[in-house]
Amino acid sequence: MASLAGLLQLKGHRITGSDQAAYPPMSELLERLRIPIAEPFAEVNLEPHPDLVIVGNAMSRGNVELEYVLDQRIPFASLAAVIHDEFLRGRESLVVAGTHGKTTTTSMLAWIYETAAKQRPEFAPSFLIGGVAENFGTSFQLGDGQPFILEGDEYDTAFFDKGPKFMHYFPDALILTHVEFDHADIYKDLDAVKTAFKRLVNLVPRRGRIVAFDATAHNAAESGSPNHVDECVSRAFCNVERYGFKANSMWRIVDLAHEGSRSSWRVLRAGEPWTEFSMPVAGAHNALNATAAAALAAGQGVPLESIVKALATFRSVKRRLEVVDTIDGVTIIDDFAHHPTAIRETLKALRDAHPGTRLWAVLEPRSNTLRRNVFEHELVDSLALADEVVMAGVFKMESIPEGERLHPESVVNGLKARGIPAELLQDANAIVESIAPRLRSGDVVAILSNGGFDGIYEKLPRQLSARAAKRG
């Protein structure tokens, strides 16, 4: 929503907004754009009546402003519909979709096009990303070229449109990363998730392209069944190009190596050497994301030289393996963890980037999937990659039916049974008080949450700074 606000402002519209509680990084972005945000929701925020109210998909009946909009018959629309009507007509729609990796892959693809545009202005991209891309310092851009690069979200569109947002984007070319069960609040099961992605694939025209993940047998358990993506693209009307580590993948990754936070690998195209990449971002999952972005861009005519240069200078995304601070020798990482698979890949990447260090995982179960018990066992498997685990209580636990609710104590007990030190503490204050005295130089602390986590990102550095100052 913040990104769309910025795009509409660039088109000359006057924008205001409302939220219950805005938090970084998007609150900071809006402040820089001088787009006023009213907190909390109130009818007065809609006076005088705007020409159009864009309703976010987190809004439901009973919200005071939404009820006022309906009572007063103020025109309203969804984010996805406005994107289509205001920005996609007459442009080339390039969409990145999948359960994991959307934000990072979209950011990579946008940076590839931006780099190419320095030599070829027709590649100057517009983009809309669900996070702040560090190369741009923003989550949106309105470029002069034809490409519009979009993060295609499978979550529902609005209270009046329960279909996925990505169904409004009509991709000319599509990246499909992983397909797993997620968003347990709106999807009944994995079959429902697959149906959504199949419908997206069905929107790609015959002249279009799909670049889709190709899971190998050995990583099937880690990346979802190898049949999930296969099944979703099996009836596509356009060319489908697969990427991954698999021997017969069209875009095959080989010789992947990590040196600190830098990754390097080679890519074979249809079995023949194509190029070598080096990127200052850790993790096998990010090598996959980068290869997908490179494959899509190359197929759309972007020069290879620009692709290699872009990935070599890619700076990741806010809240994706982001180093918040290093204080008294302790490195604090912020990662937007929303699913056990994402947690696992984050911890594996940190192992690659910081070998031999003590790795802490501090988790707030906050996403609609993590707050439920559907992945309780998988969560234990993912967190077991850390040396020390601290869990907070379930965010807004009372809003989840008791029979569906995650039991953090079960996760903690499961970790202890594997010999992993783990504890359950109810909030950020208790966590900081518990772990700050035990942290030592060289430790890496991964704070895993898709929200503000009660200010822990500020509270822990403050406590460590005070500890260091006390020692003199």
From TrEMBL:
Signal peptide: none annotated. It comes from the Bacteria. Residues 96-297 form the Mur ligase central domain. GO terms for molecular function: acid-amino acid ligase activity; ATP binding. Residues 319-451 form the Mur ligase C-terminal domain. GO terms for biological process: cell division; cell wall organization; peptidoglycan biosynthetic process; regulation of cell shape. It holds the Pfam family Mur_ligase. InterPro entries: Mur-like_cat_sf, Mur_ligase_C, Mur_ligase_C_dom_sf, Mur_ligase_cen, Mur_ligase_N, MurCDEF_pg_biosynth. Residues 1-84 form the Mur ligase N-terminal catalytic domain. PANTHER family: UDP-N-ACETYLMURAMATE--L-ALANINE LIGASE-RELATED, UDP-N-ACETYLMURAMATE--L-ALANYL-GAMMA-D-GLUTAMYL-MESO-2,6-DIAMINOHEPTANDIOATE LIGASE. This is UDP-N-acetylmuramate: L-alanyl-gamma-D-glutamyl-meso-diaminopimelate ligase. It comes from Silvibacterium bohemicum.
